[in-house]
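User: Before I run my own analysis I want an independent prediction to cross-check against. Here's the chain; please return only the structure tokens and, at the end, one sentence I can use as a sanity check.
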Amino acid sequence: MILAAFLFSCSNSKNVFKSADFESRAVRHQTIAILPINLIQSNSKLKSAAEEYGYTFQKQLLLHLLEYTSKNNEGHSIAFQPAGTTDSLLEQNNFTVEQAYQRKPGELAKLLRVDAVFMTTLTDKTDFTQGQGFGLSGGKSIYNSDKSNPNAQTLEVNPVNLDMSANLYDAVDGKLIWRTYRTGGTDLPSKMGALIQYFSEWIAKRFPYKS
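Assistant: Structure tokens:
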């Protein structure tokens, strides 16, 4: 549906598409906001844990983007809005991650006062499952997202049934202008901590800007 709605031209990178007018829009971009990642799964008991991982993923992705775009020789120069600023503005407007992803991208960009917004979704078509040491109490996650806590690395997914879509939207009209994606695969990590690392690198290596 996304590909049918927008005109894309294929880039040289695997699983990457750009809109035909990407260059004319990207040249106007100065600041991009990286939203917390939206983790979609059907087990409502793990909803709060999924949201926490979404914030962890956001910060890891931002670190990788800063690293890789600083090495880029091509593309337009941009800056990234600090994750704390992005999250604070979402909180001030009473948006959970799920609610933010239900808003129009152009509306979010204006709310965040940026030139483009980057939104990434991981969809588990089965469910996240409880790995060893991953606890639930009263329907709420009791893990600590700090890397020093080994429990933060125990949430498991079914890689074959996991889809990733990372999308860049222009603030002017909310148009999708760049996208990278991956659909399942037995070579994907099954632990969420390793998966965050994998997809952060996947996206950052393909991101079409320099910083």
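Sanity check: The domain at 9-210 is CATH 3.30.160 (Double Stranded RNA Binding Domain).
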